[in-house]
Amino acid sequence: MNINGIKLLSSRAVSKLGDVFYDYGNSTWIASMGGLGQKILGIYQIVELLVSIVLNPFGGALADRFQRRKILLITDAICAIMCFLLSFIGDDKVMVYGLIVANAILAVSNAFSSPAYKSYIPEIVDKADIITYNANLETIVQIISVSSPVLGFLIFNNFGIRITLIVDAITFLISFLFLYAIKVERVQLSKQEKVAIKNILADIADGFTYIKKEKEIMFFLIIAALLNTFLAMFNYLLPFTNSLLKTSGAYATILSISAIGSIIGALIARKIKSSINSMLSMLVFSSLGVIVMGFPSLFELPIWIPYSGSFLFNSLLTMFNIHFFSQVQIRVDEAYMGRVMSTIFTIAIMFMPIGTLFMTIFSFALSNVSFIVIGCAIAILGGLGFSYSKKQF
Any stretches that span the bilayer, and where are they (predicted)? Predict the structure, then answer.
């Protein structure tokens, strides 16, 4: 991997650390306010979701119209300044409203930075190294996801929300400096430094036309939409695993094992040659892990079996995700990369509530059998996708 790729990877790792600190510190502080905190936390999360759904398409269009590095620099600067300013608010009531407003602004920032980042990778990293880059990124992200809540807890418990916000600001500043240090010799083509709503809307429509025309890209989007619906159902069940598996601490254990599985999966993913068929094979085999998680309480099997299923599922799902985005980054025309990435993110956000809503409405869904049903659904999705890709691509 070249030096610019290392700088971009370092920037994303530090930025991810800041995201985790920010979410942990703010959510914990708001939740500590009791019943009022519960309502505020709901507003806090809904605002973030709505902003993402509405602005993701615009973020993708801007990522294709402007220099992606510049977008990333601006969004990191906004995040750093916002966290720094929030840390000076002394009144707790004002802080609550400040956090809600800041979260909306940061959600706007993320709607622009996420597609810009994913579409910037192919500009910086050689195509031959994209899988390795994505695997390294996923490994780092998973390690941060496991370790940073502990660091966030120590900082928040010992120093409070305001010092946590200052630490957040520092992480975003470091991310900014890594991005600023990236030097690219070639000039991006067709980057128009002009903003007009009419032009942006035309770009979004043009992006949808491109996706519709490209069978492979449309195929990827359908797979992502359906898979995220099933994943929402799976994630809904996890907090109930203590009772479903009749084991105290099962949920915490599954989360830990899942993180380890994701790290192992990311390490293995770089060794596998990337293709649509190998990607879908990973998805099919990952379903076995979900199915196995529903067996123990039905057949009185030992608890290590669902734990093993969780490990298998998350390791293979991580491998699938790495190869999925690598395939997109390799196959999509650079001029449309931002719009394709933002469409993937938007579809993921929009379809996941469908799965959650289904699990919420139907009380019978809260059962070990649901693991088996979800696993079978993922297997069928992967199998049908594999069969279609063999014929069409």
Answer: 41-59, 71-89, 95-112, 133-155, 161-182, 217-238, 250-268, 280-299, 305-324, 344-365, 371-389
